[in-house]
Design the sequence.
């Protein structure tokens, strides 16, 4: 079962930073937080993951709170192609991914 | 990361028939997963398929309806049996990656049952 909660939808102006929050208050000490996105019924695409330190790659930054109960995905300069559903996932104990409802991000011109 | 080929990409089927979906991976993987995504919904895990053992099904999914084969470390099939319109969904397979980057997903099979 999904162990994360996210807002259902968000809007972001093109060129601005998109900040997508995620709550994972029951996360265990050795569980990673993963972020994926799905663009219009394509297969989900990996964005970034982290354990407790903040992470950055060419796509996004991931900020994890010190208590690890929540995190924020940051798309620094959102483009129209970033319009997608974003999923925050904590891996299940059998190494499965259980998807929550995700956040539908709409980037507005 | 692994490259997944999923076939067919889409199909329209008559109710009462069955469809077998294939998932081919370009590298050997231990764990493969099958998901269903109903229209407008998130992904729901159907089952975990490990080579050499029977698939493990999630609550609400049964082997008679969704039989799975896993004959080797690069291939798996999911059959949707005795289909009804409620089975119209996108079905996706997924495999683990070995660099701790989570899982790779296939492009999915869009199934419409009429």
Sequence:
């Amino acid at each position: 079962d999904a162990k994360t909660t996210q807002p259902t939808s968000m809007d972001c102006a093109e060129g601005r930073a998109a900040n997508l929050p995620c709550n994972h208050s029951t996360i265990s000490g050795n569980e990673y937080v993963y972020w994926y996105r799905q663009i219009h019924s394509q297969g989900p695409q990996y964005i970034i993951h982290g354990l407790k330190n903040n992470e950055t790659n060419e796509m996004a930054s991931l900020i994890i709170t010190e208590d690890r109960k929540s995190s924020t995905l940051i798309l620094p300069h959102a483009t129209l192609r970033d319009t997608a559903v974003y999923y925050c996932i904590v891996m299940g104990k059998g190494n499965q991914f259980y998807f929550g409802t995700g956040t539908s991000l709409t980037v507005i011109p | 990361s692994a490259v997944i080929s999923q076939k067919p990409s889409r199909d329209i089927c008559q109710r009462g028939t069955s469809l077998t979906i294939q998932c081919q991976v370009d590298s050997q993987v231990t764990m493969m997963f099958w998901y269903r995504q109903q229209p407008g919904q998130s992904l729901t895990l159907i089952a975990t398929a490990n080579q050499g053992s029977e698939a493990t099904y999630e609550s609400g999914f049964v082997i008679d309806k969704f039989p799975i084969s896993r004959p080797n470390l690069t291939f798996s099939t999911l059959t949707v049996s005795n289909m009804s319109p409620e089975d119209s969904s996108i079905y996706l397979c997924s495999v683990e990656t070995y660099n701790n980057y989570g899982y790779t997903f296939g492009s999915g099979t869009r199934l419409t049952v009429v």
Summary: Chain B is about 0% helix and 50% strand.
